[in-house]
Design a protein that fits this description.
binds S-adenosylmethionine; 42% helix; alpha/beta; Rossmann fold; 206 residues; seven-stranded mixed sheet
Length: 206
């Protein structure tokens, strides 16, 4: 189980996370925001929400948007709660991706950014995402893609040196996981951010 190690790592990083990764966060989450196309009536769940930066990006434009973020790091969640404390319809919970504390068919949109490579049990996480999505809801996952050479190198190095890291997937492996979980892939792409980061994104329906 890497979950305890992830929690400890992000509890340690929380206070400096936004500053240390400011360019990466700004680029990936503004890309995700325009890819997802959230409508004002959507109820949105962000899995592994971190410091709540995606919520902040949406809420500065749609202050009444209904949003829920979950993460396993209390310290990351604390940053998220402080950042979004003036918005009435956003809430944050400590929960792992594989056991979501929500009723079935609750959300119009489920998103997850830059986190799938940490999940111990990707199949269980996808099953939970499917369960909490409304039948006409959509899932959008953005994560590192092992099709890029630098991501392959990072994958090898992190597996050796970072005890919190699980693995990143090729786009084919990622799509196979989505399909096996019963999702239909509606739209997908690979995208580069700067020299190092190669990511993939997919929108899937139930
Ligand atoms: C790289 S940060 C990404 C945060 C945010 N999504 C963003 O794009 O800024 C990864 C986050 O995933 C969370 N995380 C990792 N594994 C998790 C799991 N199994 N369940 C819930 N959150 C998890 C970590 O605590 C951390 O906050």
């Amino acid at each position: 189980m890497t979950e305890t190690k992830v929690r400890k790592q992000y509890d340690r990083l929380a206070a400096i996370y936004d500053q240390r990764w400011s360019n990466y966060i700004a680029n990936t989450l503004s890309f995700l925001k325009s890819w997802v196309q959230i409508s004002p009536s959507d109820v949105v769940l962000d899995i592994a929400c971190g410091t709540g930066e995606f919520e902040r990006l949406i809420l500065i434009e749609q202050p009444m948007q209904q949003m829920v973020g979950v993460d396993i790091s209390d310290k990351m969640l604390l940053m998220a709660k402080q950042k979004c404390c003036n918005y009435p319809n956003v809430s944050f919970y400590n929960a792992p991706a594989s056991v979501l504390p929500f009723a079935s068919n609750s959300f119009d949109v489920v998103i997850s950014a830059s986190s799938f490579h940490y999940f111990d049990e990707p199949d269980a996480a996808l099953a939970e995402m499917k369960r909490v999505l409304k039948p006409d809801g959509k899932l959008v996952i953005l994560d590192w893609c092992r099709d890029y050479l630098l991501c392959q190198i990072c994958d090898i190095i992190l597996k050796v040196f970072d005890p919190a890291y699980k693995q990143c997937y090729s786009q084919a492996e990622f799509h196979q996981l989505l399909t096996s979980a019963g999702f239909n892939i509606c739209r997908a792409n690979k995208v580069r951010f700067g020299l190092i980061w190669g990511l993939m994104v997919a929108t899937a329906s139930c």
